[in-house]
Amino acid sequence: MSASTNAHMRNFDSLTSGPLEPSAKKALTSLPDYAYFDSTKLYHESRSARMLLDSARASIAAILKVESEEVSFIPSGNAGLDLIISGLLNASTTKKIISSSVEQKAIIERLKSFDSTLISVNNQARINEKEFIEKLESIKPSLAILQFSNHEVGTQQPIHPIYKKCQELNIPLFVDASMTAGLVNVGNDWDVLLLKPSSWGAPIGLDVLVVKKNIKFKSILLDDGRENHKFSSNIFIPQAVAIGASLEALNQKRGETAKSLSILIKDLREALEKIKNIIVLGDPVARLPHVLSFLIENVDGEFIAQNLSKKGFAVSSGSSCTPDAIKPSHVLSEMGYPNQAHIRVSLSFNTTKEDIDDFVVALTQTLNEI
Q: How much is the pLDDT for 266?
């Protein structure tokens, strides 16, 4: 990902969108003509296309240390989330779910259709681990859902103890890791995993779903065998190849990139904490390396976002899951900050210390203009 979307704009909203990673762009522009053929047919070009798709799938599986048949490409966004939750519950005899109260808004809304229990969080958006485990034991749901890290403030969740209890009770755990941007080792403490390739510089439109072989999944769509029986549609193969290529490129320098961004976020956090009326959100240590959110007391988040844009910085404000007008975040509400609009910064992979310093200056100028 590049820090600049054009000559004047620096992208501090990389989790939402950004320029293509170079290897992804190369994959999209240099593939042979057969990459655009239907990979389900039997003729030569189709078989060649299938080999490209299988290779992309295998490269992702190797990085995640799973088997290729456990990896599927599905639609991104709300459609994909609905496909996952519905498919898991469709394979279960009961429809009870336990989830954190700060999952993506689309998940929270979807769970209203089922017998769901939401677990509270503290003022850093970390779940009440004890409460989650007690509810697992008492309710014995057919599905547990927990984000790897919070999509708005970056706080990482206690995945390991939750997964351990889920394994003990034979409850599948769906971990939403869509905001990790490939920068964090997601490990193996999950049964179902969701990744968002556009967050690491792949084209927008497809997400990566991983379902371990022992987990029951029954798609609500017509099952014709495509995408390991998860999604009945042809996949745009150049996009799948771009996803695999960009993840491979990132994986080669993941540690270095994560460390660099973590230092920049630390610098930004320290600078923001010195500015009057700013509340920096989320855990300062157990967090994503590239995400930082803050709110400014009694100041409209939309005003801040628009004025920062005029000064050359793209940031996210309001609920990160709400695509239309800026709305108060359900995450902040659960954290104890109701009716507040915040600013979320998610750094691009090539963000520099100069970018951070310039951002602090631009923010300070914006506040002085109020």
A: 97
- Tell me how far CA of residue 192 lies from CA of 65, 84, 177, in angstroms: 14, 9, 10
Question: From CA 133, how far away is CA 125, in angstroms rounded?
Answer: 17
Q: Which residues does the chain have with pLDDT short of 70?
A: 1-8, 318-327
d(CA 61, CA 291): 26
Distance between CA atoms of residues 333 and 339, nearest Å: 7
Question: What ranges in 214-369 are assigned the alpha helix state H?
Answer: 237-252, 254-272, 301-310, 330-335, 353-368
**What is residue 121's DSSP assignment?**
B
Residue-level pLDDT at 318: 62
Within its chain, how far is the Cα of 12 from the centroid? Answer: 16
Neighbouring residues of 236: CB distance < 8 A, sequence distance ≥ 6: 205, 206
Bridge-based pairing state of the strands 313-314 and 10-11: parallel
Domains assigned to the chain: 10-20+254-368 (3.90.1150.10), 22-252 (3.40.640.10)
Q: What pairing do the DSSP bridges indicate for beta strands 173-176 and 192-195?
A: parallel
Decide if 5 contacts 313 (C-beta within 8 A). Answer: no
d(CA 173, CA 285): 25
Compute CA distances 329 → 14, 258, 322, 337, 358, whole Å: 19, 27, 9, 9, 27
* Six-digit token string for 165: 């209890």
pLDDT of residue 19: 85
- Determine the residue type at 328: P
Contact between 312 and 10 (Cβ < 8 Å): yes
Spatial separation of the C-alpha atoms in residues 15 and 322, rounded to whole Å: 14
In eight-state DSSP terms, residue 95 is: -
User: What is the residue whose two structure tokens read 């017509």?
Assistant: 222
- At residue 8, the pLDDT reads 67
